[in-house]
Amino acid sequence: MNTKERELLEFDSKHLWHPYTSIETPNPTYLVQSANGVRIRLQDGRELIDGMASWWSVIHGYNHPELNAAIRNQTSKCAHVMFGGLTHSPAIELAKKLLRVAPGDLNRLFYADSGSVAVEVAMKMAIQYYHAKNRTGKNRFLTVRSGYHGDTFHGMSVCDPVTGMHNIYKGVLPEYYFAEKIRSPFHGDWDPDDINSLQALLGKNHQQICAVILEPIVQGAGGMRFYHPEYLRITRKLCDDYDVLLILDEIATGFGRSGELFGCNHAAVTPDIMCLGKALTGGYMTLSAVLATENVGRVISDGDPGVFMHGPTFMGNPLACAVAAGSIDLLLSSDWKRNIQRIESKLISGLAPCKDLTGVVDVRILGAIGVVELKNPVELASIQRLFVDKGVWVRPFGCLVYIMPPYIITDEDLDILTRAICQVVEKVL
Length: 429
Prior knowledge:
Number of domains: 2
Structural class: alpha/beta
Shape: globular
Largest sheet: 7 strands, mixed
CATH architecture of the largest domain: 3-Layer(aba) Sandwich
Strand content: 15-25%
Oligomer: single chain
CATH class of the largest domain: Alpha Beta
Order of helices and strands: HEEEHHHEHEHEHEEEHEEEHHHEEHEEH
Radius of gyration: 22 Å
């Protein structure tokens, strides 16, 4: 390590607060020089195959020439302009592309800053929807345990109460309704009793509940669990029966990650409100979108106060919209579904040896998501170092060692990645 690199890392350690870390015992950080394709190049010259797609967003890999060009072209025209009272072609073109592929009758779109903010926007829409209908007491939410919907305050209120650490904010954080964990796995049999908890909560409290919010099929950071599509289908019907909106958080599942373009497509259901983020821009810039039905938009607009009360400063940023439009074009112009099936097959075969390891609870794969669940939590700093030594970037959390690689990853790199996971997990156990 040269002097310059040491100085940078020392400053980072003393002054920068990284996600989910303590300033007293910070986890080691690795200084990035550049990134290209599926490889992250560190300042010291080492290269790491990225198994995380930078928290699931960089689906086309790093430094993609077409996405680079989209950014450059838009920069020469207009890097940013306020969206209040003004509009621009990147926002319009992106909306056209999104609404063209969105499920069902979603046809109103609101741009936001990030996935967490998209969840905030969706929840505000649901509350304001019933306020506009003069049903102001209908302002509570129902969700399911093991879910994750972001780290902003209202989004956190519908995250799993334990992993979301609700106890820290007790008395301040809104307290909502939580159905029991979904037990029926995606690839297994449907247990009709699985819906009982959610159905009972809806039946008893639907007069206070404005929306059910779920991650469709894949519960991401709350546990990386894949559940049966029938749960989603029945939930849609129950929401209709009880006059409750359905919000689907597609921030992690959108744009092909689970093998369908959107997670809700596995169940052939359409939500009233849908949140998109992460892969929306191919990981280039922060941007999210909230899609709603015409009915939701009309009710909010026709009631008091007659406008939807939200407006981020960087809403509809032209650079972000331009690169998002390019990312969608790249995805849809490829045989993305067959490619996801290829990745899934390689993950199934590559992670299979982990099933035989004592201390491994489960190995599960869906689309371009591979998960090895351990009996006990890992120690992040040490296991991270082992992965870096193997030339791969994998960032576990809790009991989960998982990967969600860029879609452009080759079979050879997938072999290296999965082999490294099996070797590191065996060594840790």
